[in-house]
Amino acid sequence: MLAMALEQAGFCVRGAEDAQQAQALLDELPPDLIVLDWMMPGLSGVEWAKRLRRDERYREIPIILVTARGEEEDKIRGLETGADDYITKPFSPRELAARVKAVLRRAGRPGGEARVAQGGILLDMEQHRVSIDDQPLVLSPTEYRLLEFFMTHPDKVFSRSQLLDQVWGRSTYIEERTVDVHIRRLRRVLAEYGREEFVQTVRGFGYRFSASA
After folding, report:
1. Which range, of 93-97, 111-115, 203-207, averages the lowest pLDDT?
2. Edge-to-edge, what's the strand order for the sheet holding 206-209?
3. 149 vs 154: CA distance, rounded Å
4. Would you say 76 and 48 are in contact if contact means Cβ atoms under 8 Å apart?
5. What is the SS3 assignment for 163?
6. Model pTM score
7. Which of 21, 24, 135, 213 is the most buried (most CB within 10 A)?
8. What is each CA distance from 3 to 48, 66, 134, 155, 170, in whole angstroms?
């Protein structure tokens, strides 16, 4: 339910059932933010958060702790793990999305702002609109999601399987060639404005979006 709510708010979401699965996802592709349940099976969310804060690779990733514990001592204990925010059940999906945006904004991470600009391309994630040099861009829903993911993760290389997971979702079973088809379509649209080189092929690895020279 939370994943669906955050996806509707414009975020790319990956879900994990426990700390072990979450750690595997983290090692594969670190996220911009972690929404972490206190009462996970096995290793608790609090204990896993402590481990993340001791690991220099992940200590800067913002964490929002989700729990049914509403007592002041519990909140203090949760925040002492290094969590950036604390939200008590029950809460509305809109409140969670607002908290996520606020924490991302404080951390200076992608997704904290409703708009992202790269190389003259302006992406409005609230209105799902794109413009280049103030000219509206017409994209299919998939092309939009692909461009949104690229622009919120600039200069990073992603494999086809990673793009499938992030843009199409893990529950979607389609061939990796589908990524190539949509990459070509996105480049074709960007080519009309001289921006096709922003979507780059990294041979042997996948694709990267870069607006830098």
Report:
1. 111-115
2. 157-158, 206-209, 199-202
3. 9
4. no
5. helix
6. 0.53
7. 21
8. 20, 13, 33, 26, 12
103 or 172, greater pLDDT? 103
167, two tokens: 């843009």
Of 64, 70, 135, 75, nearest to 101 (Cα)?
Answer: 64
User: What is the Cα–Cα distance from 24 to 163, expressed in whole angstroms?
Assistant: 17
Rounded to a whole number of angstroms, the distance between the first and last alpha carbons of the chain is: 41
Name the residue with higher pLDDT: 75 or 41. Answer: 41
Q: What is the dihedral of CA 63, 66, 72, 78, to 10 degrees?
A: -40
Report whether 81 contacts 65 (CB < 8 A): yes
| Bridge-based pairing state of the strands 85-88 and 63-67 | parallel
Q: Which long-range contacts (CB under 8 A, 24 or more apart) does 173-179 make?
A: 179/207
pLDDT of residue 100: 87
| Residue 168 structure tokens | 């199409």
Of residues 125 and 109, more confidently modeled:
125
Strand pairing class (34-37; 63-67): parallel
What pLDDT, on the 0 to 100 scale, is given for residue 78?
59
Amino acid, single-letter form, for residue 171:
S
Ordered by where they begin, the domains of the chain are 2-107 (3.40.50.2300), 115-209 (1.10.10.10)
